[in-house]
Amino acid sequence: MDASTADPGHGAGEYAQECRVAVRAAEDAGALLRSRFHGAFRVDAKGADGDVVTELDLLAEELLTRRLAGRFPADRIRAEEGGGRPGAPGARRTWLVDPLDGSNNVVIGLPAYVVGVALCVDDEPVLGVVHDPVAGHTWRAVRGAGAYGPAGRLRAPARPLRAARPVLGWTQGHGVPAGDPVARALKDALEAGAGRVLQLWAPLLTWSLLARGLIDGFVGHRAEEIDLPAGLLLATEAGLEVRTLDGGPFSARTGRPEAARSYVAARPEALPYLLDLVARASAG
């Protein structure tokens, strides 16, 4: 087990039990994915936008939803591949499950994928877990209680921008059409002002890089909702800032329209530079 999860409820306050269950479920799902990664598995098209769903997504999702529903039967569960549970009438708590963030990577044999689980209360994220089966590492965050990983508490490092310009992450939702002018302008602006722009096809993996201080910023355009709360909570509890593209406050509430899920996330000292790059895209 990852050193950070020997007691995954540590520091989680009123959500200690939920944290323990979510971490262990995510790690078990990760073990399943890792054991099947090099074998044969079914792959199906998902929608008309080039996305895919694999047999591994479905197996991991079933494990996660069964585990969460067994421990918290009154809670609602929303899962990426549709295998959720309705919960009790009027349930205020909703689990968001992304059983395999990085399905397209797995299909081509690229070992860059994670498992994500979040708990929202009244649509506000309160718990987020990201497990990397390849590295065997788990990161977790609880609202107001900090973010933790294998080396202990995560804190965004305070340092000036890299001399060779920042390293940034980029993501866009699957529903963003090819040639979308906003996406194209944003990516062009980031490429012009960054040392490197990473598009990993696994947003939760990018959020973990940001929370650990391995990259300087992360920009999302109409991001997917199912994996946003866990990553966002991990970053903000590590001391990073998240804003809308025009620099305003970003709401972490679920159930908001796709257009409201565009963001700029960065270390505080890197945020002005990144917002300036985004503003140039809008001006162009």
Number of domains: 2
Q: Percentage of helical residues?
A: 25-40%
CATH class of the largest domain: Alpha Beta
Strand-and-helix sequence, N→C?
A: HEEHEEHEEEEEEHEHEHEEH
CATH architecture of the largest domain: 2-Layer Sandwich
Q: Low-confidence runs (pLDDT<50, min 5 residues)? A: 1-5
Radius of gyration: 18 Å
Indicate the proportion of strand residues: 25-35%
Structural class: alpha+beta
Overall form: globular
Could you say what the CATH topology of the largest domain is called?
Fructose-1,6-Bisphosphatase, Chain A, domain 1
Major sheet: size, sense and barrel closure? 7 strands, mixed
Characterize the structure shown.
It is built from 7 helices and 14 strands. With 284 residues, it is an alpha+beta fold. The chain has 2 domains: 3-154, Fructose-1,6-Bisphosphatase, subunit A, domain 1 (Fructose-1,6-Bisphosphatase, Chain A, domain 1, 2-Layer Sandwich), CATH 3.30.540; 167-283, D-Maltodextrin-Binding Protein, domain 2. The strands form 3 sheets. Strands 3-4-5-6-7-8-9 form a 7-stranded mixed beta sheet, sandwiched between helices. The longest helix has 21 residues, at 16-36. The protein starts with 15 loop residues before the first helix and ends with a helix.
